From TrEMBL:
Source species of the chain: Lentinus brumalis
Protein name per its UniProtKB record: CxC2-like cysteine cluster KDZ transposase-associated domain-containing protein
């Protein structure tokens, strides 16, 4: 019960709002929301310094946003160089 209350269990079999399994969680977003990999990348384009975790078998493991495919472009209005 303590594990459930601590938020350490993720219902992988239940899809997120996009229909994909939510295996990623952000420690810095309010409420520690869970995301699928593409939603996590999209939600963090403007927050590249947030700390995330990935659900691995039976626990959350520290991860990097670059593992979601996030790329930070510093010039050209946030778009890749031409």
């Amino acid at each position: 019960m303590h594990t459930l209350l601590a938020g350490e269990v993720v219902p992988i079999d239940q899809p997120g709002t996009c229909g994909h399994p939510p295996a990623w969680r952000c420690l810095d977003c309010h409420g520690k929301p869970t995301y699928c990999i593409s939603c996590c990348e999209q939600e963090h384009r403007q927050h590249p310094l947030h700390r995330i975790e990935f659900w691995r078998n039976s626990f959350f493991q520290q991860a990097w946003l670059r593992q979601t495919g996030l790329q930070v472009h510093c010039g050209h209005g946030g778009t890749p160089c031409p």
